[in-house]
Amino acid sequence: MNPSDHTGSSVYSGAVPRPSCWPFYIQDIAQLRAETERLGLALPLSEESKPLWKELVLKSRRIPNRWCAQPVAGNDALPGGAPSPLTLRRYTRCAAGGFGLIWVERVVVNPRARSRPGGGLAITRRNLGAFADFTRAVRRAARDSRFRAPVLILQLAHAGGRAFSDRDLVKARGQIIAAADFAARAGFDGVDIQCCGNSLPAKMLAAFERPGKYGGPFENRARFLRELVRGVRAKRPELLIAVRLNAYAACACPPGFGVAGGNYREPDLREPGKLAKFLREDGAALLNITANSPNLRAAPAERARLPFADCDIGDEHPLAILSRNLAIAGALRAAAPGLPVVIGGWTWLRQFIPAAAAGALRAGNADFIGLGRAALAYPELPGDLRRAGKLDFHKCCSLCQACLCLARAGARAGCVPRDALVYGPEYRRARRFSMPRLLDEARKCRNCEEAACRISVPGNLDIPAFIRAFEQDSLRAAFTVIRRANVLPEMGAMLAYAPPQRAGEANCVETIFSGRPVAIRDIMIAVSQSARARGWTGVRLPPEPLSGRRVAVVGGGPSGLAAAAVLLERGHAVTIFESRKRLGGVPEILIPAARFPGAAHEIRALFKPALEKRRLDIRFGAEFGRTGPDLDRLQRSFDAVLLAAGLWRNLSLGDADGVADAACFLERAKAGRWTARLDSAAVLSGGDCAMDSSAAALALGARKLYIIFPGPRAEMHWCAEEIFFKRPGVHALMLTRPLGYETNAKGKLTGLRVCPLVAAPDGSWRDVPGSRYTIAVDAVFEAAGLRPAASLVSALPGLRFLENGLLATRRAGIFQTDREGVYAAGALVNGGASVPQCVAEGMGAAEEIHRALTALP
Asked: What is the pTM of this model?
């Protein structure tokens, strides 16, 4: 189980494996050639790299070289299926690195069929704009690096996990063709009809026993794929149509496509060859060959059903696997002359990939060299080869298999050792949530009578009790303890402050004995996600009759949602007024997915019983005082009103072209709508948005980042690891006061004026005389502190606001405002405290409202 997997299907039941691979021992080309001869393999080698740079024109698309970045799923899409900034980063790096053909990972043609909601790409009518921005950004990245724009192929996938009737196949065909139309409108040069793995076309090719027109004889089994190719061609004749084909599905029972009848360890290419010819006739322009997971099993009697996974050591040498792949590709290329072929399987060769790739092109085995994991590790590979004439061994994929471990754990996947700043934390997070590790942590708890760990946790959470229940394998009891204190425990635990403050760990006495606290936060996340997967997290609605009271909750953030849940459980009817199009507030809308994958699934599970019984009404797009009702109207319609609208406006130094409110920037970045190029950026720090804005700016390509804070580091709102400040290009300017902006004649930002600060005798900070200077920047994100939106303040007549802009309650410790029947909680009152604190305040406000309503006649 992984917190980045916000479906939370279950606690991850085993430690993240550390698979091994066939050791790499080749020292030079001479040894590689000798080893090939010793193994008796046909693996042509050439030290002349000229074939790798020959361009190829397909349907007026000019592919500038023979390097293809293969489709590798990153599990990092936005919740609606659009590319995230991290998705964009992976592909722009390949484009900037010189790949001439980029095969974008699979998009499912029906978002409801996504195996991991929020993880995989899905192209729909709603997110076409995001995909169009994606294609433009990828091509721009190539041009900015002085390479020609790559040809972009989008892989279309339809899973074939269940028995499909002929009617289902017709529906699936329509979905795939519609997705191809979307791809063309988004600016892709072509589409790939995935015919490998668990895809529906691949299942049909192996439907030897299926009755009807889509099963049995080869012509029937190939019918569905051929209909797809012809249908896409008819709908979008300008598209390049590609097929990623598993030409040798090496399993015996049931027999796989392309397998010799008597021996699954031998390919039989008669049917794959015929299929390649048919596809060329039907209009396919590219064939991307895979041969299953490349390793074969050693004992057919014991392991005849499936091949080894890529991370297992097979009984074949990697060179033998590559040699077979090349033979298969060459045979299909010969069977369908004029149909260009992409072939993969090169990663084990590391710095000798160019010699083998050029040899394969010269020998006619393939037309393009497909790199998957090798491209993840070394996206600059073509460019480095072009400039230096050789590859950098230290950038090559080492086949550590960590990217596959991340994919298995449902985490965002990438190269851990070569891209450590991005994927190192992902890998450590995946290992963190293995069940053996969590149980070991639970056993460390000393079950203190007066537990110090409870002091810093809002909501009076009984930490020793839920850890003790977890250790005793009583998951439900553990969750009951957590739920009593926090109705949004996943969101609360994930966004609790980082060490040493997070989730009660600051005061854990185990730190005194071993130097490390019990992993309270991790256990809490694991228990909460497992509880949701088992259907335990919904609101516990009382039976009829209801209280007859109605409460309006203004704001669908943590405080408002927590209050709504408690009020529903107390028997009241609730209406939530939310100005955005989804619930979750700042965490859902602003916090980057790399830190918080989202709360949509937790919120949906929490309120599902209330929505089904129509005790909860949610009104989206209702901006208080504008498109939504005003306070007077709410009080006439409801028995009580809770104001939990949050803070969305940052303090500003002024306007300039290039200056953005951090909240607006984060919202656009998370939704994949930030398209402006970043080079040198500054973040005016002080509020909670500063850390996330800094991370988002780097993810969007900022080369230089200045973090400006007018105080010492200890007072800064920052919960990321300190290693963040050691990243290349990051400049942390503490004790530095921002003064204003400099612009050119057109109003474009050119610089940020700042002044260093020094301690004064009275303990305050003052400017250092004569030390003002200007930092050259082209973007500034203002995150120096939040205030209520001006429209909200003007819509609350009769309510008292403090000098710091926050809404005042009658006295400390209560939520009643100066207006009878109107209450306030969350950031509007506390100025932007932690999510657990906001949830606790929302629950407390709900209890206060319930007591007041109960007292009414």
From this structure: 0.66
Q: From edge to edge, which strands make up the β-sheet containing 704-709? A: 659-661, 779-782, 680-684, 704-709, 730-734
Task: Specify the long-range contacts of residues 472-479, CB closer than 8 Å, at least 24 apart.
Answer: 475/527, 475/530, 475/531, 475/534, 476/531, 476/536, 478/527, 479/527, 479/528, 479/530, 479/531, 479/536, 479/537
Residue 248, both tokens: 């040798």
Q: CA nearest 743: which of 680, 654, 681?
A: 654
* CB-based burial label for 411 (10 Å; 0-12, 13-18, 19+): buried
Alpha-carbon span 661 to 671, nearest angstrom: 16
Rounded to whole angstroms, the Cα distance separating 212 from 210 reads 7
Closest of 637, 489, 472, 456 to residue 558, by C-alpha: 489
Where do the H-state alpha helices sit in 445-474?
A: 463-471
Residue 652 has pLDDT above 90, yes or no: no
pLDDT at 256: 84
Let me know: does 736 contact 754? Beta carbons within 8 Å. Answer: yes
Rounded to an integer, what distance in angstroms lies between the CA atom of residue 281 and that of residue 229?
A: 10
805: Cβ–Cβ under 8 A, 6 or more apart, which residues?
Answer: 787, 788, 793
Q: Model confidence over 234-286: pLDDT tens digits?
A: 999 999 999 999 999 887 667 789 988 767 778 999 999 999 999 999 999 99
Contact 138, 92 (CB under 8 A): yes
Q: Which residue bears the tokens 């209406």?
A: 575
What does the pLDDT look like over 672-722, one tens digit per residue? 888 888 899 999 987 678 888 998 999 888 999 999 999 888 788 777 677
Which tokens hold the place of 501? Answer: 């403050």
Write out pLDDT tens, residues 767-813.
998 899 999 999 999 988 777 777 778 788 888 988 878 889 998 88
Element (H, E) at 332: helix 318-335
Is the bond preceding 254 in cis, omega lying within 30 degrees of 0? yes
